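agent> Task received from the user: take the single chain below, predict its 3D structure, and emit structure tokens. No templates, no multimer pairing.
agent> Plan: (1) validate residues, (2) run structure prediction, (3) serialize to tokens, (4) report one or two observations.
agent> Step 1 OK, no nonstandard residues flagged.
tool_call: predict_structure(input=
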Amino acid sequence: MLRQALLTRAASNLTSRLLLPSSRLFSTTRTPHATFIVIARDGTDPSALQRRLTTRPDHLANVQKLKAAGHFILGGAITGHASNAHEQHREEDKMIGSVMIVEMENREAVEEYVRNDPYVKEGVWVEYEILPFKQAIIPS
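)
tool_result: status=success, residues=140
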């Protein structure tokens, strides 16, 4: 009976930990965090793409720090799309913004992070919104 209770408890703990980002999988202390989605739009002026490409290494280094701290869940570029399957563009030509999903203490922490991101400081992202996000758990 005791063995069964211990196994059930261990399975429950493992399941709840698997839902956390891997960087916090082995954490012994956990500060409560909320999940947010950041939707950012690039400028549309003629030099917008060049600004993005020039700033991209600094932006990605900043995201790497966020990931190392266990706050980054996923992110990537929002892309335009070709009007038909025969049009081909370089990937960089299609970037029009970005989306990030992050876990932080509160919206203010996300706002501070975004405000200090190189893409904002260098004028790549000309507007952004931060929204609370709740992941759906779909039963198998």
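agent> Step 4: summary for the user.
The chain has one domain: 26-132.
agent> Done.
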